[in-house]
Structures are given as C-alpha cells and as structure tokens.
Amino acid sequence: MTTSSKPKAKNLNHLLSGEAKSRQLSPLKGLFKYFNTDVAYLAGGLPMSDYFPFEKLAVDIPTPSFPGGIGAPITVENKTTVEVYKNKADNVPDQIELARALQYGSTEGSVEFILFVKEHVEMIHKVPYEDWDTIASVGNTESWDSTLRTFCSKGDSILVEEYSFSSALETANGQGINTVPVTMDEFGLIPEKLDELMSRWVGNKPKLLYTICTGQNPTGSCLSAERRKKIYELACKYDFLVVEDEPYYFLQMEPYTKDKAAREGKAVHSHEEFINALVPSFVSLDVEGRVIRLDSVSKVLAPGLRLGFIVGQKVLLERYVRLHEVSVQNPSGFSETLTNALLRKWGHSGYLEWLIALRKEYTYKRDVALDAVEELLPKEVTTFQPPVAGMFFCLTLDATKHPKYKEFGEDPLKVEEAIHEQAIKQGCLMAPGSWFKSEGQSNPPQTNLPLNPNHRTHIFFRGTYAAVPLDRLVDGIKKFGKAVRIEYGLE
C-alpha cells in the first residue's frame, strides 16, 4: 500500500482534555526555527556553543555481528568507535553535532533521530493510515504522564488492566484520575469482559485504555493478535483511545518447552523471520488514528538514556508538543546524539541484528528461570504460565492451602504477606502481586466475577530474569522455593 492510498486519521479532538485544548504555541519556541539561519537571532536566551566545554564525544560500541553474544566484553576485534564533534563540518553525515545537541533543542526531537525512528516504525509496524507521526520523549514514564494530561482531567476515568504497573497507576492517581480495572486471565486482558463493562457504563465514558500488551508488567502475559483486533474494534465501537505502553515489545521470545533438546535450532535468524515473528502491535491495526504508542530504548539499549518516542496521529501529537515545550522541553542532548550516532552507525540492519541477539539472550535467561521454577518450587501449591515476552515471570500460589489460611481470616493477602516476609528472610525478593492491583471503580460498579473461579483465593509474585546473572537467578528462585515450602509446611 502506498502512502497516498492510506486513509486519513479520524478527527478525535473531542477526546482531548480541557488543558490540552487550551494550550497555545510558546512564542519563544515558535521563533526557534530561525536559529542557525541568516537571521540575527536576538530573541532567545541561547548561549553560544563556543562556551560549551565539550569538543568531542567518543564511545566504543560493539559491531552488529555480536559473535560473542551481546554480553561479551568489547574487544579490538568486535568494536567500533563512534565520534561526535562540536562543529557540524567535522562530523560524518546524519550526526547531531554537539553545538546543536547541547543547545536548547527541538521539542519534537532532532531531525536525524526522528527520521531514523520513523523509518524504523514504518518497517516494523507499517502504520495503516497516512497522517501519523512520531515525536521524541524522555522515556515512557514521561510519555504516560503527558498522555494523561493531554486527554484527561481530574475526576475522569480510564480503563486499565486488572493488574498493571504500579507507577503508572500512581501517575493517574496523583492527577485525580479514576483507574477502572478490566478483568484479565493468564493471556492478558479479556476483550469480552471489556465489552461487557463498557456496554453497562453510565455517564461519561472513559477516554482511553492503558495496556502493557507485550510482556505485561507484572503478569508477563502477551495479548494475542486476535485479542488485539477485538480490543481495537471495541475502541472504535465505544470511542476511546488505546494507549499501548510497549517498552518490552522487542523482548519477544521463543515459546518455552521443558524439552531442552527441542530448544535447539528454533531461534529466528533472518530479519524477515524476526519481524514476522513479532505479534502485531495495536498501531499496526489502527485505521482511525486512535492508538497512542509509547516506545522507549530503555529495555533494548539502556534505561539511563531516558529517551523514547511517541507514535500517533499528527494532530494529537501536536498537543503533546505544546505541553513538552513548557515542561520537559526536549530529551537530553547527550542522550539523543549518542543514541542517534549508535543507530546511524549500525543502520537499520545492524539494529535488527542487535534486537535478534536480545531475543536469543532473553529466551535463554527465561528458560533458565523456568527450568529452576520447575525443579525448585513445590508443584502442590505453585503454578506458572510461561511468558513469551518481556522481563517477568509470575508464580501463582493457592492461598487456601496455606496452613494458617483460616487463622488469617481466609484473607489471601495475609498469606501473601507471610510468604513475602519469609522470602526476604531466606534472602530473595520478589514483588507481591497485590502491589500491582488496580482499585478504581466503574459506573455502575463491576459485579461480574472473573472467568477464573480461583481468582480471589490465589495470589502471585512477580519475578524477573533480567536483573541478575544466571547463577544468582537460580539461587534466588531456590531461596524463594524454600520460603514457600516453609510457609506451606512442606519442608
């Protein structure tokens, strides 16, 4: 499909918040287009780059072949040195020179970085409508905060997954926004439950659904293509936005199998295989421009870069820019020029090689974690659903089998607390599932029970296979297993 044959986005300005609708162009920011032109720019407080005490930025990066694996030390044989200079004339093409990177920058993001990102988005997602765009952000945490301010006002309700990232829930809570949970199962948000909830809603309906749809945090679930299609159709039916928070999108893995021999030879190798193996994103299904995609380099390059990008229809992203002009202004110049230099050196092909290597690494780490769970956790009380994406795995425990369940007043949360404290005593920290529970209320209140009849008597703990070396990972699971055995009287 050529660009000219794509449909235009639907006008969704009615979903903007009062704050977003009232924002005007910052006059001084509007003049920035004249900076570094023949115009004598005397309007803004921009220091001369002559006074920036940085002449060159040089970093060693691995070559895209990654023969020793992505965790291997960088040596003379497998490294490339990238250099960025202060003056444009000293740089290779498509670099963001330090004189520009360290100046007050473009709120939308530097042209070179945004161009690479747009090519990347089109290659991976093939956005099916014409007037989409992307702007830089300071990572997904900032993107989510800006999204709420752009579309919601105090007292509004939004739809969230029944269990969601606790910081994201607190961001909404701090703005006085009601988070209404939609029932999940082990495979993520249930479209039929979303439809049931919205069909019964009274009064002002939610403007958006917030979903961490790939490698969901905390459950590790991944929405199938079929569920995503149904959810998108419901967004069109009930006129709300889908906000896909996707830091883990490229951490999709091979399916888990207990048969170690069967794991050999299953990895994707070619770029085409890799792209085709990715579950379709919501933005790849979006023909109306009602998906806001929050993307980040935090989980694929480094969290400390504090750099990401937002994909959506141009008209809505323009409202983000007005907000960013008077808040974050623009990403760190060091981060943007460093990331752009790396991506330009690798090119799209090299970046895909990096992502393929990440897929292999995370598949292996996930397998080590689940092999340890299989061996070291008591099956009498513990179950798990193997994750196919992300950094997390969840261990579900039957609270009713705890010997003190009745003594605890048949309160699963007291069982959770007891296990949590015992795990710390044994030297392992996993996150209790209750920390991620969405507690908002729908209108009218939800009365439907979840599909899982054991839902209210089971608890879970979130673990990660991303944060520690493999030996400590296995040791931590062993210690958690011991804590569970002690608490359930299985020692």
UniProtKB/TrEMBL annotation:
Question: In its keyword annotation, does this UniProt entry include Nucleotide-binding?
Answer: no
| Gene Ontology cellular component annotations, sorted alphabetically | cytoplasm
Where does this polypeptide localize? Cytoplasm
Transmembrane annotation, as ranges:
none
Q: Which EC number(s) are documented for this chain?
A: 2.6.1.57
Q: Which Pfam families match?
A: Aminotran_1_2
* UniProtKB keywords: Aminotransferase, Cytoplasm, Pyridoxal phosphate, Transferase
What is the recorded name of this protein?
A: aromatic-amino-acid transaminase
Instruction: Enumerate the catalysed reactions.
Output: an aromatic L-alpha-amino acid + 2-oxoglutarate = an aromatic oxo-acid + L-glutamate
User: Aminotransferase class I/classII large domain spans which residues?
Assistant: 91-438
Statement: the UniProt record of this protein carries the keyword Cytoplasm: yes
Tell me the superkingdom of the source: Eukaryota
Species of origin reads Candida viswanathii
| Gene Ontology BP term (one) | lysine biosynthetic process via aminoadipic acid
Q: What gene is behind this protein?
A: ARO8_1
Q: Name one GO molecular function term.
A: aromatic-amino-acid transaminase activity
Q: Which family does it belong to?
A: Belongs to the class-I pyridoxal-phosphate-dependent aminotransferase family.
Name the needed cofactors.
Answer: pyridoxal 5'-phosphate
